[in-house]
Amino acid sequence: MRITQIKAFQPPTPGSPPDWRTQLGQMVVEITTSDGLTGIGVGGGGLAGIHVIETVLRDLLIGEDASQVESLHEAMCRHTAFYGRSGLVVMAISGVDLALWDLRGKAADTTVAQILNPAVDLAASLPTYRTVFDDAETEEALASGFRAVKLHVERFGDDPDVTGIERLVARVRDKLGSSGSLMIDAFAKWNVESTLAVARAIAPYQVDWLEEPLLPDDLSGYQRLMQESPVPIAGGEHEYLANGFRRLMDDRLHAVVQPDINWCGGMTTLVEIYRMAKELGVRVVPHRGAEGYAVHAIAALDQQPLAESPRTWFQCLSGFPALHSGTVRVPTGAGFGLAFADA
Ligand SMILES: [Mg+2]
Predict the structure, then answer these.
(1) pLDDT tens across 250-275, in order?
(2) CATH 3.90.550.10 fits domain 116-340
């Protein structure tokens, strides 16, 4: 199964962010093999990521055996190490890796979830949580069956309005009841002191985690938060490759890690993260896990599965898991079970 062609492109999707600078700007990678199979991956980096694929990764991979996914991943990382190792180069590698995993599933005529764990229960309903930005979205999430919500609190400022956040958390906890899960996401806008002030204020409301309060490289800040915060600290959606996650876990910088499979290095990296996390007792909750890729790992490898709600604008592929009363199931088609929406 030799690689004969690699295409990378930004699909025109109504409502999508215009390019990679908005961080969620995506690209699709399509890999064709000598036996006529096509693997579809989604990576990041937008036009810059596409440039990395077209000028570096494509030359490296054309003619190689597509089934050697892990060694091709290693080759891509090694080849780009002097200017890669994180950020948009790894986002581009992620898309290629996912297209290779899709091929691996299609070649075996089985799902990626079953390759990861032959005993996986594909009929299981996986719980999800919905990320909400305001009260109206929270009401809508609860009305549509979600029993878990994550409140994005960026609107409370970089020097956060602690009382405002506490009131919001109290209001949502009241609506959820004691059994629902509640998390908050600060989007790397705070410092250690303001984070601790928020954490102390919201601690009585049974908050599962406080996500990404500091910039990803503020390691000493995260170390202090892990020692002093009464609410578990989560993060990692902007971390890359196994080495980055090994540092977060070895140094106990996060209680919950949230790799994004389309950015962090693809399925090859996510599998390694799950292996390390199990060994070290760290929880893994992949970023936007209810989209079509990470959901296979969540079903197959997670002891405490929870998938984040998908981005609704990403519509160039069909076959994403459908949400039913706040749960999803793994798509049952070969590979990741995805296809081009207009195919
Ligand atoms: Mg987040």
Answers:
(1) 999 999 999 999 999 999 999 999 99
(2) no
Angle between helices 241-250 and 266-280 (to 10 degrees): 20
For residues 13 and 316, the answer to whether their CB atoms sit within 8 Å is yes
* Distance in Å, CA 2 to ligand 1 centroid: 38
- CATH architecture of the domain 3-109 equals 2-Layer Sandwich (3.30)
Cα of 59 from ligand 1 centre, angstroms = 34
* Protein residues within 5 Å, CB atom, of ion ligand 1: 185
Q: Is 287 one of the annotated active-site residues of the chain?
A: yes
Cα of 136 vs centre of ligand 1, distance in Å, is 19
pTM here is 0.96
- What spacing in Å lies between the alpha carbon of 188 and ligand 1's midpoint? 9
Where along the chain do its domains lie?
3-109, 116-340
CA 285 distance to own-chain centroid? 8
Pairing of strands 126-132, 327-328: antiparallel
Cα(309)–Cα(286) distance, integer angstroms: 11
